[in-house]
Design a protein that fits this description.
With 355 residues, the chain is mainly alpha-helical. The chain has helices at 2-22, 66-72, 90-100, 102-105, 149-159, 170-183, 279-292, 305-312, 316-325, 340-352; strands at 43-44, 47-48, 87-89, 187-188, 198-200, 207-208. The protein has 3 domains: 2-48, no CATH class; 75-208, Cytochrome Bc1 Complex, Chain D, domain 2 (Orthogonal Bundle); 279-352, Cytochrome Bc1 Complex, Chain D, domain 2 (Orthogonal Bundle), CATH 1.10.760.
Length: 355
Amino acid sequence: MYMLDLKKSLLAVGVVTSLLATNAAAVEKNIDGAVIYPVKDGKYTAYSVNQQKKEGFSSYGRTPTKNEIKAWDTDVMPDGHGLPVGSGSVEDGDELYEAQCSMCHGDFGAGGVGGYPTLSGGQGSLKNQLGLNGTEAPRKTIGSYWPYASTLFWYIKTAMPFPHPKSLSDDEVYAITAYLLSVNSIKVAGEEIDDEFVLSNENFKDIKMNNTDGFYPVDPSRHDLKEQRGPLAQGTRCMKDCNQPKPVSIAAEIDVGFYPAISTKKDLPKTKENATVSKAAKVYEASCSACHANAAIGAPVLGDKDAWAAVVEKGIDKVYANGINGLNAMPAKGATDLSDEEFKEVVDYMINSSK
């Protein structure tokens, strides 16, 4: 088995080497020094490129209304544009993080299981990427890589927690953001953040991230970097009477010829009248689905009959014990504060839903 895997690895290396040799003449480089290869015979190195024509959809779509644009304009900008009124303390953020985030991102953001990103640490490790001194491989975390805290706030607000995004209030988002800044030793108005610190829309712009100046382009007055690029998006924000690009329908990105035809139906699934959701199901959605609804994690996925049949073969008492005490990457009771009996009900729900 080992020799077979080795042969496969060597074959893969040979293919990549061949592709690189074919494109050896390419000299254009990306901003981080990586080579940019030309598209040849419909491929970018080993990857096919979609070269379908995007025509014939000019009659579709309409100009969105002001309210529709407002509903979609949820991003938060470094200058504070889009920040909601609210506040949250590091202390509250600590409790919220433990309940909502630690099962994926680990204690203090130090890294969890299943490929979820590490959120803290790595300060100074990006020096290698810029060709400077250093011994640690680059680690891109909030404290080492992100240039603006506004991105952190916006991402938590719109995409987290993973099992049920957009479920946090604005104050809760401020609190979790404050906590993550604190574990990354980020300063606000030049001061260290302690547990009593309260982050709000009033002091948000006082946050100074560690890697604010580590991105291209930088201010044209900087001459100490190895490569200079022209300034992008460094002008004055246009707030009225702006020159808007011609609206393009999303459908313009979809070519004809699909079979079966692409569906545009957007009806919600019908639900039974007076249907009730059990407490176990709610706990699963809030605390378990991050791992047990994602096949890439390695945990048995809800609804996978074969996977759960193999689990149950160990005996239900063994299944309960493993879940309550924790096993491998599975934290004890899924990092919840359920009683043993309540946790067993969640296990029963997952087993019964996978038969």
